[in-house]
Structure formats: structure tokens, C-alpha cells
Amino acid sequence: MLWFRIPPKIFFKADCMSLALEELRGRKRAFIVTDAPLFNLGLPEKVADTLKHLDIEPEIFFEVLPDPDLTTIHKGVDRMRSFQPDIIIGVGGGSPMDAAKIMWLLYEHPNVRFQDLALRFMDIEKRVFKFPKLGEKALFVAIPTTSGTGSEVTPFAVVTDDATGQKYPIADYELTPNMAIVDPALVMTMPKKLTAYSGIDALVHAIEAIASVAATDYTNALAMEAARILCKYLPSAYTNGEHDAKAREKVHNAATLAGMSFANAFLGLCHSMAHKLGAEYHLPHGLANALLMEHIIRFNATEAPRKQAAFPQYGYPNATFRYARMAHVLGLGEGSDAEMTERLIDAFHELCTKLEIPHSIKDAGVDEKKFFANLDRLSEEAFDDQCTGTNPRYPLISEIKQLYTNAYYGENKMV
Q: Tens of pLDDT along 344-396?
């Protein structure tokens, strides 16, 4: 049986924010969660002004860090409890939206322990810890100002326990926002590096979703279209920025499409490894994914996994076939599944070159001695990451270690 969770109510046309916020009329107080750079640009204030016109009292919390941590989240929750909002609005990239999701949960259910939220599971629908129902005290609204994470339509939040330095991907459908405002007017002036890293992150979402052992016909369609749009329009969005409004809008929409896909299909080993690599060396999440994706595709395309993940939609290894289908959709020519998979890898490499993204962890500035000193630990942590379970080829820790090593030097070695 296939299941597909319907995403939140989405407003997606340019300059749609006022229309979307009109839906909130009748509520009393809105707590806006964002970060300092966006606050300094004045965007949260514009949201607050619109809310005031609707007779909704706003309060802005702008202390979210690039890697949202538990200390900041608890600080935000304390503010929420004194303000008592009936709307929570996450404004920004993935970090403010993810932080706002966990604040939402802890605000509505103060007795929940973070350690329980972070428990691993085999199936998101069947787990040891059951997430409490959300939305009884406050409506959650997500407003993305970057084109990449898809957090506005997903049940995921990535949070760092700053006491241990461990980064946790938290997943449950209760964390899915009630409303998403996907307004391309908010991303027209994104910096070039942010455009590149967030856009590549969205493309990796699509590629991992298509090969996931939990993929379905529904998620495949979303992932294929997201990848097609991103490969076509991301280079111009990066090069021309606000001077190509169409490319900006297309990339922004594609990031949300990819989000809807992996919200249901989940991700894979690339994200597992990127979570640990990025947290350890303070690399942007999209960059960490870009440095690993080519190696993961090649690893997954080996049709003889030592161990296969156990999900009902995936009766036999067919990642190569799935990658080949994506290559055909991208118009990369004709050939065998193996040949088309290599063309997909080449196309990804070429796109990273156009976006001026380095092709190895070493070139990204990670010190060689530090990298190899931490390699065993990072490999073990990546193996234990929540995203590993839906990767089409279930890895050994030794294989993850070799993949990290290949990515460090940018080498293509058999794993």
C-alpha cells in the first residue's frame, strides 16, 4: 500500500504574502522566529507590520543560529510561554524554520524531552516515541527566504545539541507546517553562494528521494520535476540573480517540490554523511551535500549490496534504473542504465562547476590531519543517522569511511 502525506496549504505566487497572512485574521498574537541577518534586513518587520494591520500582535525572536541549537530553542520557548501566541511563524532558511518547529512542539507540550524526539526509528509511522498532536494552541506558518531546504513542507527539523555538538534530524508528521508561503519575491536578492548551496541541496533532495527505498509513484513525480527545473534554471539564478526573475521563481518552486518528495520518500546516505561533515567542520549544508553526492550515486548504483534496507516498496536493488530514469528526464541522451547513471554524475559535477562549488572536501578547506583524526567517529555517526535507513544500498561503516576518504580527495575509487 502506498501512502502520501498531503503538504500544508501553500501560497506560491509572487507578492502573495499579504494575501496568505489574511488567512490568519481573527487570531490574536504571532511569534515570529528568524535570525539576525534577516532581522537586520527588515523582512520580519514587514511580516509584523502586515500582522498589525490584521489586528494581530507580533513579537520577533531573532536569535536563531545557522545551526539551530537547543539552548536557543529553549530561550525561544521561554519567550513564547510568556507571550502566549496562537500563531508561530518561521521566517528564513531551514535554520529558523527548523528551530521554530521544535519551539512549537515544546511550547504546546512542555513535558516532552528532546531525547525522546531524537530516538531513531525504522518507520516514521511506527516508533517507540509517539509525537504529541500539534496545532491545538498555535498555528504554524513557514515562510522560506532561501530556495533549498524544503522545510516549509516537510516533517523534518535538524537541531544541534550544543552540549555534545551532535546534530539530530528530527522527523514526525506532526512537525509539518499548517501553511507555507512560497513567495519568490523573498529570494530575488539572495547572495550567490547561498543560491548555489541551497539550490544544490534541493537537487540532492530530489536525487536521494528518487532512489530511496520508501519512494512511491507520487514522490517520484515530484522529484523528477524538481530535478528538471533545478538543472535548467539554477545556473541562471546563480549567475543573473534578480535580473532573471523567472529563474528565481522556478528554483524557489522546485525546492518546495523536492521538499514534498522527500517529506514522504525520505533521504539517504548523502544526507547522513553531510549532517556529520557539516556539523564537524562548519560547512554549509548544501556544500556538504555537493561534496558527497557524486560518490553516493556511484556507491548506490553497485547492484550487489551486502545488506539491503527492509521496506515494502523496494523488492530488489534498482537504484541504477532509477538514476537512469532521472538522467532521461534531464535530457542527458540515450544509453544503458549504467551509462545514464554516469551521465547523471557528470551532469551533477558540471552543475557544481558552474556554481563554483569545490569538488573535494580538501578543496573546501578542511585540514587533512583533522579530517582523518575524526574520520572513524564521523563514519560511525553517519551510519547511525536517521537518513541511512532509506538509502538503497545499506552501508557498512567501513564503506562510509571509504566514501568520506574518496570525497576528501575527490577521487573515484570502488567502494
A: 999 999 999 999 999 999 999 999 999 999 999 999 999 998 899 899 998 99
Phi, psi angles (nearest 5°) of residue 208: -70, -35
For residue 37, the surrounding DSSP H or E stretch is: helix 36-41
First vs last C-alpha separation in the chain: 34
Q: How far is CA 358 from CA 127, 244, 407, in A?
A: 39, 25, 11
pLDDT at 310 (0 to 100): 59
Q: Helices marked H in 146-284 — which ranges?
A: 192-211, 217-240, 245-265, 269-281
Cα 325 to Cα 304: distance, rounded to the nearest angstrom: 20
| Residue 99 and residue 72 in contact, taking contact as beta carbons nearer than 8 Å | yes
DSSP state of 174: G
Rg of the chain in Å (alpha carbons):
20
Q: Residue 360: name the closest of 406, 296, 300 by CA.
A: 406
- The owner of cell 551510519 is 383
| Structural contact between residues 400 and 269, judged by C-beta atoms closer than 8 angstroms | yes
Summarize pLDDT for 37-70 with one digit per residue, the tens. 999 999 999 999 999 999 999 999 999 998 899 9
The domain at 9-186 falls in which architecture? 3-Layer(aba) Sandwich (3.40)
Contact present, 219 and 6 (Cβ < 8 Å): no
* CATH classification number, 192-409, choose in 3.40.80.10, 3.30.1360.20, 3.20.20.100, 1.20.1090.10: 1.20.1090.10
Among 32, 286, 329, which Cα is nearest to 149's?
286
Residues in the chain with pLDDT values less than 50? 1
As a 3-state breakdown, the chain gives helix, strand, coil percent values, each rounded to 5, of 55, 10, 35
Domain locations along the chain: 9-186, 192-409
Please tell me whether residue 91 adopts helix, strand or coil conformation: strand
pLDDT for the residue numbered 377: 97
Secondary structure letter of residue 366 according to DSSP: -
Res 162: pLDDT: 85
For the whole prediction, is pTM greater than 0.70? yes
- Crossing angle of helices 217-240 and 192-211, rounded to 10°: 160
Q: Please check whether residue 191 is in contact with residue 182, taking contact to mean a CB–CB distance below 8 angstroms.
A: no
